[in-house]
Amino acid sequence: MEQVTAMKQSTIDQKPSIYSLQLQELKEWLKENNEKAFRAEQIFDWLYTKRVTSFEDMTNLSKQLRDRLESAFTLTTLKTIIQQQSSDGTIKFLFELHDGYSIETVLMRHDYGNSVCVTTQVGCRIGCTFCASTLGGLKRNLEAGEIVAQVVKVQQALDKTDERVSSVVIMGIGEPFDNFDHMLSFLKIINHDKGLNIGARHITVSTSGIIPKIYKFADENMQINFALSLHAPNTELRSRLMPINRAYKLPDLMDAIRYYINKTGRRVSFEYGLFGGVNDQVEHAEELARLIKGLKCHVNLIPVNYVPERDYVRTPREQIINFEKTLKNHGINVTVRREQGHDIDAACGQLRAKERKEETR
């Protein structure tokens, strides 16, 4: 109880992260504090190009401005609790936040570059029955700067070998659309050419299906890649796997997806985890093909990672191939996700569940 009270008090006392500010917001803060607006670009250069870890390191700013920044903001630093590296180069970080809670961030190495998977919440309230992230429920949302700091922290690690983060996926712990405003601010900060300058088409956000926010995201009309965690071809099965389907029914969800495609002209990726004996039969593939036929879409089949706290098992390789082949026979664009991090705690939320049991009970 004392630890929980301390965590809550720490959150109340914590200054906002400077990483949470978009460039225009920083310019406005500077003007309000009788500073020149052009200083914002200098500060962004220190944060995102030079990637300093202290306001004192911003040497082309006056001492007075550095002191003001120090008193108004925190330069969010994440404490690395555990860093696991897979034989395939995947690195999973367990970071500690200022209030003692922990989050996961993953660096994945591909032929086309380095991708970072970020977390948007401490825990998750969605309750998907196959996911370790939801164990213990939702503790709190991350502010935009805490999400940005994950990318910065990984980039600082890559700086040692002259590599860079080339893409970002928002598929870590939490439901991004349940923390919509902070997520949106994060997207704009990392996409900005004065920020981390990660191209919109190299950023992917995923949702479990919060319908009102899908419409809202479509109206933003960003060039960000959009993915839906589908995992089932019908309402009954999806409700069993994903309780959110009881609030946001599959037919209504598909209407929202059609709105997104029509509004943006962009393709939607459907994430479909394969769970042995649950949703991986040929008849499920046939039903899935009927559900999404005619949509501008792609299906990403995901052989699940085994999570000790959950009962699901992997689909046999031959069955995965049959599922993929069935979709292709119906003209569906489909790929099977390449497995990464199989020799570490790769499943989302798994490392946190194992190492921070007080958070995930």
From TrEMBL:
Subcellular location per the Swiss-Prot or TrEMBL entry: Cytoplasm
GO molecular function: 4 iron, 4 sulfur cluster binding; metal ion binding; rRNA (adenine(2503)-C2-)-methyltransferase activity; rRNA binding; tRNA (adenine(37)-C2)-methyltransferase activity; tRNA binding
Binding locations of S-adenosyl-L-methionine: G174, E175, S206, S229, L230, H231, N305
Free-text cofactor note: Binds 1 [4Fe-4S] cluster. The cluster is coordinated with 3 cysteines and an exchangeable S-adenosyl-L-methionine.
Entry-linked NCBIfam families: rRNA_mod_RlmN
GO terms (BP aspect): rRNA base methylation; tRNA methylation
Catalytic activity: adenosine(2503) in 23S rRNA + 2 reduced [2Fe-2S]-[ferredoxin] + 2 S-adenosyl-L-methionine = 2-methyladenosine(2503) in 23S rRNA + 5'-deoxyadenosine + L-methionine + 2 oxidized [2Fe-2S]-[ferredoxin] + S-adenosyl-L-homocysteine; adenosine(37) in tRNA + 2 reduced [2Fe-2S]-[ferredoxin] + 2 S-adenosyl-L-methionine = 2-methyladenosine(37) in tRNA + 5'-deoxyadenosine + L-methionine + 2 oxidized [2Fe-2S]-[ferredoxin] + S-adenosyl-L-homocysteine
Coiled-coil portions: none
All copies of domain Radical SAM core, residue ranges: 110-343
Keyword Membrane carried by entry: no
GO cellular component, one term: cytoplasm
Source organism per UniProt: Cytobacillus solani
Protein name per the record: Probable dual-specificity RNA methyltransferase RlmN
Top class in the EC scheme: transferase
Extra remark: Reaction proceeds by a ping-pong mechanism involving intermediate methylation of a conserved cysteine residue.
Catalytic site positions: E104, C348
Family named by the database record: Belongs to the radical SAM superfamily. RlmN family.
Named cofactor requirement(s): [4Fe-4S] cluster
HAMAP family: RNA_methyltr_RlmN
Primary role: Specifically methylates position 2 of adenine 2503 in 23S rRNA and position 2 of adenine 37 in tRNAs.
Any Pfam family: RlmN_N
